[in-house]
Write a structure and sequence with these properties.
The structure holds two protein chains of two kinds. By secondary structure, chain A is mainly beta. Helices cover about 5% and strands about 45% of the residues of chain A. Chain B is built from 20 helices and ten strands. The chains are: A mainly beta, B mainly alpha.
Chain lengths: ~1100, ~500
Amino acid sequence: MKKLLLVSLCFLMLCITQVFAQNRTVTGTVTSKDDGLPIPGVTVKVKGTSVGTQTNTSGKYTLSVPQGATLVFSFIGYETQQAAATGATVNVVLVLASNQLGEVVVTTSLGIKHTERDLGYATATITPKELTQTNTTNIANGLTAKVAGLAVYSLDNGVDPNIAIVLRGNRSLEGDNNALIVVDGIPIPGGTLSSINPNDIADVTILKGAGSAALYGSEASNGAILITTKRGANDAKPTIVYQNSIQLEKVSFYPKLNTQFGTYGGEGSYRYPGTNNFLPAIDPLTGQTAYIPYENQEYGPAYNGAIVPIGAPAGSATGPIEMIKYSPYPTPPIEQFFQTGYTEQNDISYSQGDAKNSIFISAQDAFRTTVVPNDKNIRNAFSVRGHRTYGIFSADFSFGYTKTYVTTYNSGTTNGLGGINGIGGSYVTNAGANDLYSSILQLPAFLNLSTIKNPNTSEFGNVNDFYDAYAINPYWTIDNSRREINKDVLLSQLKLKLEPSKWLDLSYQISDNFGINQERDTQAEVDFSAYGLSDYFSAGNVPSGFRGTGKAPGQVADYYSYGDGTSNPNPGYSRVQGDAIADFHHKFFTDLSTSLIVGNSVRQQYLKEMGTYSNDLLIPGFYNINTIAGAIAANEASYTVRNIAYFGDLNIGWKNYINFEATLRNEQDSRLSKAERSFYYPSAKLSFIPTDAIPGLKDNKIINYIKLYGSYSRVGNIAIGPYQIQNIYTLAPGFPYGSLGGLTAGTEAFSSTLKPELTTEDEIGAELQFFQSRLSINATYYNQKVVNQTVPIGTSITTGYSTTLTNIGETQSNGEELQVTGQILTQAQNKVGWTLGVNYSNNDSKVISLLPGITSLSLGNRQFAVVGQPFPLLEGTDFVRDPQGHVVVDPNTGYPSTAQGLTTYGRTTPQYDLGLTTSVSYKFISISAVAEYRGGDVTYNGIGGTLDFTGSGYTSTSAGRQVFVYPNSVIQTGPNTYVKNTNVNIENGNYGFWQGSAYASTDYPYVSSGAFWKLREVNLSFNLDKFVKQYKFIRGATVSFTGRNLFIWVPKNNPWTDPEFSDTNPTSNLRGTNDIRETPGTRIFGGSLKLTF
Amino acid sequence: MKKYILIIAVFFSIGITGCKKTYLSLEQNPNQPSVSPPGLTLSGALVVAVANVNQSYSTDGIWMQYWSNSGNFVPDPVSEQFQITNTSYTGVWTNLYQNLTNFNNLQISAAADPTLTSFEAIAIIMKVYDFQQLVDQFGDVPYTQAFNPSKYLNPAYDSQQSIYNDLVKQLDAAIALASKGGTSPGTSDIVYGGNMANWQKFANSLKLRLAIRQSTVNKSNTAAADLASTASFGYLDDTQDAEANPGYANQLSSGVSQQSPFWAAYGFDVTGNQTFPNTYYRGNTFFIKALTNFNDPRINQIYAPAGSGVTNIQGNAFGLVGTTVLTNSFTASIGPGLLISPTQNAVLMGHAEACFLQAEGILDGYITTGTAQALYQRGITASFVDMGLTAAQATTYYSQSITNVGWTASANQEEAIIYQKWISLVGYANLEAYLEYLRTGFPVLPNPVSLDPAAVSAVLPIRQYYPLSELTSNGPSVAKEGTINIFTTKIFWEK
């Protein structure tokens, strides 16, 4: 492989040579004793001379030295070491300096390395061990709850879940608030994070604010996650690491359900099997509802253990009728339906290197099934990374290819092309039966699902015989309505570097990152029998809706995109980027260190998408757009974004205890009109170490390190899409009719005067270390102001436009972040090591102004921006209340009614986020855990409405389906007089109240706190290195047992679902509403084995 | 040092080369055009205009007793209990103004080009057609300050009478423009294929509609006074109506049905299965009884029996709840005289309505040629023929000595005209039937009109609320309209 690498790199070996007479060349690698990883940037000098060099990113150096010389290796944070240059290879292991504080090297913007003490802003670093300690398949999950101010949202629980990563809360009202993801110095498309193998990661740095990421410009206005991937190994030894992990996944949180009442759905009369007469379904005397054997709603009589018929006779009117015990089945249907998911990951990596080059090769196979039967995600990732140094010239390359195959049931979500590509979960759209989860929630508690498991063949489960006249068999959906996705993602980059002088580095970096997404949704044709169409119960059943043709034809939708490889729900852009950077650095008068980095960055982002669709396939089971009746629905779109930036970064440090940094970036972007295209972003940062600067503070036994820092920065955020600067015409609906075309004016007004949103951020903070650094505290306060929010404001359609995209208003968000790490016991002194970490963040947001005269702006999805309030703010309908807040009920029916207008329920993003991390180690055993609390927000649970509709939720049975006085209600007796309601019961405690009254059509009952506690991660690992050493070929072995999201605790007013779930897409800011597309929350547990050779 | 400068210079040139001056100029949207030729605007807007009137007024169909809500579903608070809010009918307002925006764009661009007078004339006529729907349902609406966002971001509301008066002037201008020749709209005119004489007849009929709508409260209104000036252009009648067909087809285009709008909304999807409204809007006992009492053979064209053993036309009374509600297995669905084919013409103004308008115009003295009886009978015949029956059947029908069927048997001839108009407007012109009911009180509906005990009124609403979108985006203007009560705040032409 090494030879192959040399061949592949030989074209890079330009004719640059360095000749030093009489000397010989010594090479070597400098690694850290702490973690065995190579250390870049180590100064290597020939003792007593000024001859020297630095190690490269792989920790390697090459130096021409005279005979008999001694080499001096120095690097901040490490003890300086000397070594005689006796051989051709001199490898050195550096030991961390115990008294050097704040000298951890942090990778910052553009891959520039700084010592931690120089930084004027808050950062956080996650080690690979922390990242992958529970074998997550997605890097984002490994970051959860570990950094103050970083919120990772798992938006659903699917096989290919959507994840949002937000730093320091929302800034933009409508634009993207996701952090920029940067891999090895180059931003990658947001959707490709899930394509990166977590085991390839060497280091993750979080740049929390706009200031820290200012050098990345408008893309990083929401902070950045910098990922450094592994390069070659230390020394010349080839290393092979094999890792296997297996995890199981089970439903951990589903709604509390009705276990008391069977089926009835509001009918006045019904036809009982075996008779042709209609019987009243409500007892006129008692008001008791009858058991209706074909209903999808559960408002029937209480379970009594009798044997009752269910559904229509099978096959024909004279066929057998299934008899069933009218009492809850021992396993609730929801538990019968969801299975145990299984994830297996196999990883193998090879790394090798010597002084001049290094290589890292990894391959991963990750196979995952989830709790939904038939869903699968298979990911195969392959990557090669390497480094080559030749004199003053070096090259670094990275190539990663990931193939992902996903198969899942159709959930009706469409992709970016706006509607035609996306097939619902079933052939009927009645009462939410389109969605899988909704049809599961229509299964009554007394049902044994084994009789309906085969939706195409079984007697009581097929489309004609399904016991439920109005819903569909959920097994039909998972068998017959499928989405298959193939994603091919390629991430590649090449960096060429020239170090012509010790005060100058020049580098040019080019990257091409793209993905191809192929998606096919299919839905099988359904052919109904004459018996099914005849509607045995005369109930208006599902098949009777297809009497026109007796069938629901098959559907197929294909979607292709060239972009970042994602499609659900929106595709992202591919990107090609070139960065040229010149880094000047020099130290004057021994104490004044300076560096100036100037650079230029040019990028193009491109997305092309095409889709076809038909809902009228001619041949059952043959999914091809050529074999259809009617016309093909097809569409296409392409988008290009180009951006040119120039930037500079000046660093001035004095005596290692004061550092000033200033950056300036100019950006020109194709999304803006020519007049608005060019803009500047400045930033300034200062850090100061009093414990080094002030003699009196030195060598203090209690406080041994203090750093104070602050920054001011301004960054723009281009929150408009390409081409949103001029009005458009779109195809008029239904056109073209033959050769006749037609257009209609777009209803959103655009303007060429649109500007970028402008974020101004001030940040101050302090880092304190106590008791020989066993306790460290990092506290930060930030204040962000955003002006020119780019928002589509609602305009009167009488102007010709229903919305106008415009720059308005101002928002503010500020917050505190606190990160405390304590080494309570150290293994060296106490045999048992125990560390405890707390990270806490508080984010306050506020809309300061919108437009003059406008104090509220709808953001969609029940969420608003309201002047003086946090954003986004959940507003919804509420009951009519008296001035004290009591619900006013009707004096006759006892029912509440819906108030006109909207009530404010609260912010939908968590205000508080608390993460707790701990690890205990004893000998070769270590155990670690991560827990997280989020709170201060509210959620609208769309699933609540479904549960009340079906009657399958616990809430509607909480009063035993009896009448009751609406709690704390009042009755209005005069214009402003209300009396406490003590005796007016609700008219009907069953269907009437829970489904027929304003209760079910008002938002209030379905709003809950968004708070939760989650036990995010638990890891128990055994380091068996010393036991396997006897086998020469094995160098290390680790066995671990892991668990993720093992427990969740939520407030009592949320009996529905994981409040982290949301029905919006990751780039939307309107989290805080969920519906029935998100299947229940799960816990994951398993084990892994890691072998090093 | 020189070496370094050279290296740096070469180095930066790598980054910047390739960046031509036009590199960042990507204003041109490759996905959607930023201009629209007049022909494409015209065809697009006409298709939407006719779809609006054929599809949007289901609730009016319920209220005019053509249909009842399906017994398969829980009661609908809006249509059956009149629990109407300012979001219940937002669609109608938005669709009409959106459509008007396109006609207005067309009017402006055509007015700038002297060869496009025909396009301009059609744009004006269609604006009148849309604006009358707005005024008749909402009263005062933005008119003079509409469609000018750079000047009026919050357009003021014009008084309904003044809009009506201006619509008459606009029609006169359009009729004059239509005589000027100019480029023919050709196939982009999906109504008349560029025949401007027919557009003049349509404009004249709209003027008659404006006159008659006001006639109950003000017989000598400005529209009526102006009728004579364009009487020579004639009116639509049983020989010429206003129907559109861009080439309707039983297929989807980009996921949107290309079927005739009435069929698409109330009939069957492109695969032949029932649409939701087809299962939801079912036979109504009041209408069934009326047709049966009149011995009207159109009953089997307006309704189709439930099938599966149920061969008679059955329905539910409007708002009926409880144990006697019939499910879809028993109730009639919309019949073959209305759902003719997926490619049937879409009706802007039908033969029958045009005849009945003239009949009433003659009664009122607005029209001086022809007889009311003849036009009344031609209207009935046109309705029979349009529904697939014969003129002979029509003659048999109107020769019966039954009040509101036979001309001479009807003491109140205006009532007879409105009753027959009511029957003829079923389905595709529900709004017109509802408006004529509000104007004349015919047909006489049950009291209370809805049997649903939760109904908040014994009578139908007489207008709509301004939509919530207006309150939030044009608040100050709409506030000047005061409090609207949909049961008592009258449109100016209502009694």
